[in-house]
């Protein structure tokens, strides 16, 4: 297969980063990729994969200690790229587990909370979810209605969260609620009385992923359930920045698969006596897609280097999430046109990726919100308040 890395971006990576990327890609090609169309069509997530992902070191891989791999951020990004090259649902699982639930515990949890949950989650023996979005409050989490009331013995949690990846699988939920002292985070194990989940069905996107509603009905928690170092909305928003970073790379994985699929198809599909890759309009589509993909890859590696240096800013994460996702979605749609009618079947991955990317475009901050984040950075005026 011809490489679509026209700028030799791979040469910018270290040997270790390339080895990690190759290892993840090889595992997914052998163990996962052949089964994804079936999982997508059935609307199921392969829970049997979770311990294997843990064994490979992919869960919380950019965190240190507690059984986590401790890789650099760029390596984590490259792993996300390979995961999403197979399916966005698989990358979403890893992102939520490592960059939302595990990161929240690692950054804001007590030593007792970290020691109890992080080793299990890193090994894939426990699944986590992250409860921030609510039915009526997505882009504006400051309006959340879930509340935690202080009692003499602990907390009582009431409310609901919506569109929560991994919710129905989770052994533990990291839940954000309004208290008398502002927004706080809580560790809610699955078996807690009053805590239940309802999976969301009928999805046309991210079908090979579990998406759920979390319901808290006078859910009693001990004092030790609170994340001691999390105060205000800055805490959950910092977790979202971690997850968005993975998306910057991950979306390009979906784009690469679509581009490679369209390129190989165009070289073998004949019309008017020759492969359609030999026609000028098809070559223009392929070139435009390849140029957009390579620019996105350069952006991702640059932001990875900033993150590894401790210099990455939230606005730069918004830049990467905004542009790389919309570029990936445009590539998926254009690739579908090259495949013609074949592009709408599960025999080829392009429309599955396009459908998945519609969700990626929305979650972890819509394109509108990230546009306004950058608008505020440029003008100093917050248009969304």
Automatic annotation (TrEMBL):
The keyword Methyltransferase does not apply. Pfam families: Acyl-CoA_dh_1, Acyl-CoA_dh_M, Acyl-CoA_dh_N. Residues 129-219 form the Acyl-CoA oxidase/dehydrogenase middle domain. SUPFAM superfamilies: Acyl-CoA dehydrogenase C-terminal domain-like, Acyl-CoA dehydrogenase NM domain-like. Its cofactor is FAD. Residues 14-125 form the Acyl-CoA dehydrogenase/oxidase N-terminal domain. This is Acyl-CoA dehydrogenase family protein. It comes from Tenggerimyces flavus.
């Amino acid at each position: 297969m011809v490489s679509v890395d026209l700028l030799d971006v791979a040469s910018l990576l270290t040997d270790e980063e390339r080895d990690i990327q190759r290892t993840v890609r090889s595992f997914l090609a052998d163990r996962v990729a052949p089964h994804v169309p079936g999982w997508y069509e059935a609307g199921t997530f392969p829970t049997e994969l979770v311990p294997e992902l843990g064994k490979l070191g992919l869960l919380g891989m950019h965190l240190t200690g507690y059984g986590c791999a401790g890789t650099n951020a760029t390596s984590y990004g490259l792993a996300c790229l390979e995961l999403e090259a197979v399916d966005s649902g698989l990358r979403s699982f890893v992102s939520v587990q490592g960059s939302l639930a595990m990161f929240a515990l690692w950054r804001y949890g007590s030593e007792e909370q970290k020691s109890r949950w992080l080793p299990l989650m890193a090994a894939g023996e426990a699944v986590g979810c992250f409860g921030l979005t609510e039915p009526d409050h997505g882009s504006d989490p400051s309006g959340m209605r879930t509340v935690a009331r202080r009692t003499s013995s602990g907390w009582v949690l009431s409310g609901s969260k919506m569109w929560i990846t991994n919710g129905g699988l989770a052994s533990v939920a990291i839940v954000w609620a309004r208290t008398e002292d502002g927004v706080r985070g809580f560790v809610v194990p699955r078996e807690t009385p009053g805590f239940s989940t309802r999976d969301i069905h009928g999805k046309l996107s991210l079908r090979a992923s579990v998406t759920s509603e979390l319901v808290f009905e006078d859910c009693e928690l001990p004092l030790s359930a609170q994340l001691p170092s999390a105060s205000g909305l800055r805490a959950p928003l910092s977790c979202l920045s971690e997850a968005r970073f993975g998306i910057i790379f991950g979306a390009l994985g979906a784009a690469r698969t679509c581009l490679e699929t369209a390129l190989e198809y165009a070289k073998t599909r004949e019309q008017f006596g020759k492969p359609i890759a030999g026609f000028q309009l098809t070559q223009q589509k392929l070139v435009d897609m390849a140029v957009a993909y390579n620019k996105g890859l350069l952006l991702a590696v640059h932001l990875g280097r900033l993150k590894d240096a401790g210099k990455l800013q939230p606005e730069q994460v918004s830049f990467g999430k905004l542009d790389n996702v919309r570029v990936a979605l445009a590539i998926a749609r254009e690739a579908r046109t090259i495949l013609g009618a074949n592009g709408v079947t599960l025999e080829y991955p392009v429309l599955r990726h396009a459908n998945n990317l519609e969700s990626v475009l929305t979650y972890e901050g819509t394109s509108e919100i990230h546009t306004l984040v950058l608008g505020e950075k440029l003008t100093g005026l917050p248009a969304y308040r």
